[in-house]
């Protein structure tokens, strides 16, 4: 699985190349309790600064996420754990918000996102699926986008 790329955005660097492995959350048959999917998120070599990460879900009753807020550091991996509760087979998604913090940003990522008024610099959509049928459809839905007007640094 390669990097997800997009156009110019952060300080003239093409990208940023964001890597999430695996690119879709696939859950096996649920037989009581939670079922988990674990993902590694990393930045590519073109990104020199950490990014703030915030994760949102299309169905918070069905999924538990950890972490909801985090820093993604260059050269390091951030682990994302997704727990799915038993329920109907349906297609859901996570939307991962990424933004470059200002030098004056809080030390913790939660306050950074709660105080932020600007849209995220990048959005990464991650499909969530239960079986092979929804997994096949999900493979085509992973995408990375940016606002139409990138924020100036």
Strand content: 35-45%
Structural class: mainly beta
Summarize the amount of helix as a percent range.
under 10%
The count of DSSP E runs of length 2 or more, i.e. the number of strands, is: 12
Number of helices: 2
Sheet of most strands:
6 strands, mixed
**N→C terminal distance:** 30 Å
Shape: elongated
The helix-strand sequence is EEEEEEEEEEHEHE
* Alpha-carbon Rg, integer: 16 Å
Which residues sit in consecutive blocks of at least 5 with pLDDT less than 50? 1-13, 149-153
Mean pLDDT figure: 78
What this model shows, in words?
The strands form 3 sheets. Strands 4, 6, 8, 10, 11 and 12 form a 6-stranded mixed sheet that branches. The longest helix is centred in the last third of the chain and has 7 residues, at 132-138. 8% of the residues lie in helices and 41% in strands. It is mainly β and 153 residues long. Strand 1 (8-10) and strand 2 form a beta hairpin. The chain has 2 helices and 12 strands; from the N terminus they run ββββββββββαβαβ. The two termini are 30 Å apart.
Essential attributes:
single chain, 153 residues, mainly beta, four-stranded antiparallel β-sheet, disordered N terminus
